[in-house]
Write a structure and sequence with these properties.
The chain is an all-alpha fold. It contains 5 helices and 2 strands. The chain has a two-stranded antiparallel sheet. The chain is elongated.
Length: 137
């Protein structure tokens, strides 16, 4: 079974993989996901992608810091499990409400990311439950 530290590191990689396109190619990412959407709440879609990429990169940094602790704090890991669940629910709600605005490949990408996030969240919850707070490298 994977340790909490390993799972947090995997989560770090997943967040970076999802955030880097928004940071490095915000315009392309916006066109890929939402080809006909010019903006959201007064912000340009590239601006939204850039902000989302920055938030994911910052969260990835926090995950990496916590994963380097000898024993990641249980409360923090529980928070990440909750965050993963909210991300999945938010993605599904977004697709249910505005699915027609996304490109086919955008829908596929969002569902793949939601699936990965659900899996890592479930694995962290299971490791947290099974470890009783004892995580090894």
């Amino acid at each position: 079974m994977l340790s909490l530290r390993s799972l947090l590191r995997f989560d770090t990689a997943l967040c970076l993989a999802c955030g880097l396109p928004g940071l490095l190619a915000a315009g392309w990412t916006a066109k890929f996901l939402l080809p006909d959407q010019a903006g959201l709440l007064g912000l340009s879609m590239p601006g939204v992608m850039l902000a989302l990429g920055a938030a994911l990169a910052a969260y990835a940094g926090l995950l990496l810091i916590m994963s380097n602790r000898p024993q990641p704090p249980r409360g923090f890991v529980a928070f990440t499990v909750l965050a993963d669940g909210l991300w999945v629910l938010g993605t599904l709600a977004l697709l249910a409400a505005f699915g027609g605005a996304f490109s086919l490949w955008g829908v596929v990408a969002l569902l793949a990311i939601a699936g990965d996030t659900a899996l890592i969240g479930w694995l962290k919850a299971r490791a947290l439950r099974d470890s009783n707070g004892l995580a090894t490298a």
